[in-house]
Specification:
The complex is a heterodimer of chains A (289) and B (322). Chain A has 289 residues and is an all-alpha fold. Chain A is built from 15 helices and no strands. Classes of the chains: A mainly alpha (289), B mainly alpha (322). Chain B: It is a multi-pass membrane protein.
């Protein structure tokens, strides 16, 4: 390793830059948590920075006693579980089929998926389609149009391709059908990639808001992201003419802060435990894609 | 190879094959692999209905669509809707905004992850490296709604940024109400959210570089900087090309959801882009055919950009996406 003076100076500057990146990344989180525990008056007077001012838990009580918030929070959980389940079944089946190199027509099946990465129907035809299928105001408007992510599909496909083919051949000789091989041999060997894909899908459905915003008119069906969106849209100066903005105009900034914190909380809690799986999943897709 | 059981046909019947090879092999493939094909049915239905049907649904850009009527419109009107937006000054305004916002975003979000990946690569403490990475990936996992909420809180008149301005004696700025600030806010938030995550693929590519190359460079007397220039950068070039081609392809589809959350009529002059305009024209005012025409125009430009970028990169550096 170099020990030259120039390199040591570089190491110090590098450490400073990376520290800067960490601080800039974390600052908004610390700030929002501090606001969520602060009184409205200290926020509006501009005193809340890294630590809560006028510490109190009343805002948390206010938000958590709002039945609409809980209803929408529960919707998010239900939608996420359902959508992730459907996505996993479809993606796994297709990825397995695409991983079978001997399969006739495999190239066409791959092309069907790949082409959609570069060209799509666009907002309006999708909107018309979902409306005409009668999916409005139902969870299927969120689940079905986003059921397969081509990126996830490719990651799974390359994972399946790397499984030892001998195992499957042996199972076939022993008389297992394709379904049996998939269910009893391949899936148990693929727990790592399955877990990663579940996480990918779950996070994306947990975070999504636009489909619900577009296709759901009843507030009892909203996921919590749309609840939050209506809060911040109302607070952005009444610029938005949505139905929610009138009531939301008076929404205090500490209520927004609490809602933001509660919405991200599940992700923040599981993040440290699962992020290395995400990284593995992305790298798998990248190197083998 | 034969996985699903059926034994290959006995030898000696080869002579029948050249007659109708196509049908015969298809029949054989279906008989042997019908279970695999059956697994593909639902996913294919998904792609056909939710990806290809909307592509065909774009014909409403050439036909008059009546709400509640046929998915594909009622009557041919030719290029009427295309002529409409070609002569629409509002459209050209949002077109310009899209190019500027997309261009500036690409200018920052493409090279910065490479720089960060190279810096991370020089960190010798594995623990520190992992910590910086974990922290910088985090914003990628947030909902866009949450990011918009954080931006609004930070930039509000009493928010942290204005506290800083007050501390140095500057009057507070209502950032989100001023069109001249929108591009800065948008691009910095894109960088904040995507910087760390953008390094992952480069870091993966860095691990695949042969260590002997560094040894050789050192023997040849290359210092750290020259090693980076002559070994590291060429090593991650395929990844750079791939991501650049992909980025150029999505260039026109600037962060639609984020802009929708962050803009307001006061900032339309810099913030309104083709997708948001399309949303207001198509969904909010219900001009489906007009909206579809704009959308089709946008998707076709996107496709042309990807193909062109890929062509250029294949000519220039010899690798492309396909």
């Amino acid at each position: 390793m170099e020990t030259g003076r120039g390199y040591r100076v570089f190491q110090i500057i590098n450490a400073l830059i990376l520290t800067g990146v960490v601080i800039v990344t974390l600052y908004p989180f610390v700030n929002i948590v501090a606001q969520s525990f602060s009184s409205e008056s200290s926020i509006t007077s501009g005193h809340v920075n890294l630590l809560p001012r006028g510490f109190n838990l009343t805002t948390y009580k206010t938000v958590m006693s709002d039945s609409a918030f809980w209803e929408n929070y529960r919707n998010t959980v239900v939608y996420t579980v359902l959508a992730t389940g459907v996505s996993m079944v479809l993606t796994t089946c297709y990825a397995y089929v695409l991983s079978k190199k001997h399969l006739k027509g495999r190239k066409v099946l791959i092309a069907i998926a790949l082409f959609t990465m570069f060209f799509n129907g666009g907002l309006i035809p999708n909107y018309v389609l979902v409306s005409d299928l009668g999916l409005r105001n139902s969870v299927w408007a969120i689940v079905l149009p986003n059921a397969i992510s081509v990126f996830n599909l490719l990651v799974m496909k390359s994972f399946f391709e790397n499984l030892p083919a001998e195992l499957e051949e042996a199972a076939a000789v022993d008389g297992l059908s394709t379904y049996g091989i998939l269910g009893r041999i391949v899936l148990p060997l693929s727990k790592a990639v399955l877990a990663t894909m579940v996480l990918f899908y779950a996070v994306s459905f947990w975070n999504s808001w636009f489909s619900a915003f577009l296709y759901m008119d009843r507030s009892s069906l909203f996921p919590v992201t749309v609840y939050l969106r209506n809060l911040i849209a109302g607070a952005s100066g009444g610029a938005d003419q949505s139905a929610a903005s009138d009531t939301a105009l008076q929404i205090a900034s500490n209520i927004q802060a609490v809602t933001i914190v509660l919405t991200v909380l599940p992700i923040l809690v599981i993040y440290p435990f699962v992020q290395r799986y995400f990284v593995k999943g992305v790298m798998l897709g990248a190197v083998k894609g | 190879m034969g996985i699903a059981g059926t034994v290959d046909p006995p030898p000696g019947r080869e002579r029948a094959r050249p007659l109708r090879p196509r049908r015969k092999t298809w029949r054989r493939a279906l008989r042997r692999d019908w279970q695999l094909y059956s697994l593909a049915v639902l996913p294919v239905v998904f792609f056909v209905v939710f990806r290809y049907l909307p592509m065909i649904g774009n014909v409403i850009a050439f036909r008059r669509y009546v709400p509640g009527g046929s998915l594909f419109g009622e009557k041919w009107v030719g290029l009427r809707y295309f002529r409409m937006f070609m002569g629409d000054p509002e459209f050209w305004h949002v077109f310009g905004n899209t190019m500027i916002l997309g261009g500036v975003t690409l200018l920052f979000t493409f090279p910065l992850p490479i720089v960060l990946a190279l810096l991370l690569n020089e960190v010798r403490s594995a623990k520190l490296k992992r910590f910086v990475q974990s922290v910088s990936y985090l914003p990628h996992f947030l909902s866009i709604v949450v990011v918009a909420g954080l931006i609004m809180q930070l930039l509000s008149v009493n928010g942290a940024v204005n506290q800083g301005l007050r501390a140095v004696g500057h009057a507070p700025i209502p950032f989100l109400q001023q069109p001249e600030w929108f591009r800065t806010i948008y691009v910095s938030s894109e960088v904040w959210q995507g910087l760390g995550w953008g390094t992952i693929l480069y870091l993966a590519a860095l691990t695949t570089i042969d260590h002997q190359l560094y040894e050789q460079a050192r023997i040849d007397g290359a210092n750290r900087w020259r090693q980076t220039w002559h070994v590291t950068l060429p090593g991650i070039r395929p990844m750079m090309v791939t991501l650049l081609v992909l980025n150029i392809g999505t260039f026109m589809a600037v962060g639609f959801e984020k802009i929708l959350l962050l803009y307001n009529p006061l900032t339309y002059s810099t913030a309104d882009v083709i997708p948001t305009y399309l949303y207001r024209v198509g969904v909010v005012s219900g001009s489906f055919s007009y909206g579809a025409a704009i959308g089709l125009f946008e998707s076709v430009i996107g496709l042309i950009l990807v193909v062109a970028a890929n062509q250029i990169s294949r000519r220039a550096v010899g690798t492309g996406l396909w």
